[in-house]
Design brief:
Blueprint: E1 41-46, E2 75-84, E3 87-96, E4 102-111, E5 114-115, E6 129-134, E7 138-147, E8 156-164, E9 168-176, E10 183-185, H1 190-199, E11 202-208, H2 216-227, E12 230-235, E13 238-245, E14 248-260, E15 263-270, H3 273-287
Antiparallel strand pairs: 1-7, 2-3, 3-7, 4-6, 4-8, 5-7, 8-9, 10-13, 11-15, 12-13, 13-14, 14-15
Length: about 290
């Protein structure tokens, strides 16, 4: 039987806007993604406006602008994430820190995910290249919308950027993609949770000990804001959550967590072993003390 708590009122706090800064380093290899076109490229703009989100993205949960991915004295590359229902939007910023023009060409290597094509930019070829003439002390912003099928470890956005300021220089960078980047809340009743729990074939369990989470209020808040799953019900020290992969209602993710004396007892069920494993690994990384 499903380890769902008995029916009762569901004191589920509302999801917290925003989320973790999930930008990170290089991941391992993954199946090559289907090459797609890039989304729209925004013109150069002053550095002090770099943290402003486009109006169409401002109301969606998002991360802050991340740290420098290159540590280069002339060019700074940074990214932020916006979690839209239909996909993950990565805003890739290329900054010119010099008071003169720098020609920049950036090549992207997308692993494990797909780029959603945009009319009028990119031709759908395998070469995902961006070219900019970045204004002095200005920057260019590229808006990349990513989608995926079943989740699996190894999803990553890699790139290399080449510019000429005297001798040509090549910078390498990566934006790590987490399971929660492609998880979206699913509203379920307790009965719906129980019925679907029985149907999902892939189950992964892990005891996270010791855990940095000690209260139910903190647990619900962090699962909703960091994993993007929706609380279905809380009873005592047990809680259940429902989610899906982007807008695909057939790709369910159900989570049961119990707070115990040794830590968090986490169970994840989905339709794919790779998806369940990817999610539970992220939970263990985030919540282990």
């Amino acid at each position: 039987p499903a380890p769902a708590p008995a029916p009762g009122p569901a004191p589920a706090p509302a999801p917290t806007p925003g989320g973790m800064d999930l930008l990170g380093g290089l991941l391992g290899s993954a199946p090559t993604a289907t090459p797609m076109a890039l989304s729209s490229n925004q013109p150069s703009m002053p550095l002090d406006n770099a943290d402003e989100l486009p109006a169409v993205l401002a109301n969606h949960p998002h991360s802050p602008l991340g740290p420098d991915l290159t540590n280069d004295p002339s060019i700074r590359i940074a990214a932020r994430k916006v979690w839209k229902p239909e996909g993950l939007v990565v805003l890739l910023h290329i900054f010119n820190k010099l008071p003169r023009l720098v020609g920049v060409q950036t090549t992207l290597d997308i692993q494990g995910v797909r780029l959603i094509p945009s009319i009028g930019f990119g031709d759908g070829s395998a070469n995902t290249q961006l070219s900019d003439s970045v204004a002095p002390s200005g920057h260019a912003r590229h808006v990349l919308t990513l989608t995926t099928g079943p989740l699996a470890a190894g999803m990553v956005l890699r790139g290399q950027s080449t510019y000429v300021d005297g001798p040509p220089r090549t910078l390498y960078f990566s934006v790590q993609l987490s399971a929660s980047d492609f998880i979206r809340p699913r509203v379920f009743s307790v009965d719906e949770f129980g019925a679907n729990w029985e149907k999902l074939p892939s189950e992964k369990k892990q005891l996270i000990t010791p855990s940095a989470i000690n209260t139910m209020e903190d647990l619900v808040r962090r699962v909703e804001s960091e994993v993007h799953a929706k609380c279905v019900q809380v009873i005592g020290k047990e809680v259940i959550f429902a989610a899906q992969v982007l807008q695909d209602a057939s790709m369910l993710v159900l989570i049961h967590i119990a707070i115990g004396s040794r830590g968090l007892d986490v169970t994840v069920k989905s339709g794919s072993p790779m998806t369940s494993e990817f999610i539970i690994r992220q939970c263990a990384t985030m919540w282990k003390a």
